[in-house]
Amino acid sequence: MALKLFKLETFTQLLTKYVEARLEVVKLDIVARVTALVILLFEIIVAISLLSSFFIFINLGIAFWLNQWLGSAYAGFLWVATGQLIIWGSILLNRKLIARQFEKITVKMVFQVVQEEDVANNDEDDQENKANQDEPKKED
To answer: In terms of CB atoms within 10 Å, which of 9, 59, 132, 133 comes out highest?
Structure first.
């Protein structure tokens, strides 16, 4: 009877350790995926910031060039502002279509990052399984 209780206690201890280890693996997996997502969002923010700066300076250059060409101190800025108003108006009118396209692109990017991580994890698991199979089996 005492031997059965000892085996049951050992089994429950091993099961508890296994569950704790699995929870730790899940936590680490979640952290890795969130980290990859944060990095992706940071890259997007940096790209948007650089593009915004580029467009601001391009617009300023066009406005100053138009001012010189038109011989005015303000007409170039008015033409550039009008062009920007037309562009932003068309974006505003098509915002649902643009939002759907942006959503599709974002989902594809996130799934691509997740799939790359899964492939890397599967490769590591395959290497571990191959290493375990190559080890000679001990007979009891």
So the answer is: 59
Contact 118, 33 (CB under 8 A): no
Alpha-carbon distance of 76 to 27, in angstroms, equals 57
Encode 113-135: b = buried (16+ Cβ within 10 Å), e = exposed.
eeeeeeeeeeeeeeeeeeeeeee
Contact 91, 98 (CB under 8 A): yes
Confidence band for 136, pLDDT divided at 50, 70 and 90:
low
pLDDT for 82: 94
CA pair distance 37, 31, nearest whole angstrom: 10
CA angle 120, 44, 83 (to 5 degrees): 150
Phi, psi of 22 (to 5 degrees): -65, -40
CA atoms of 64 and 72, how far apart (whole Å):
9
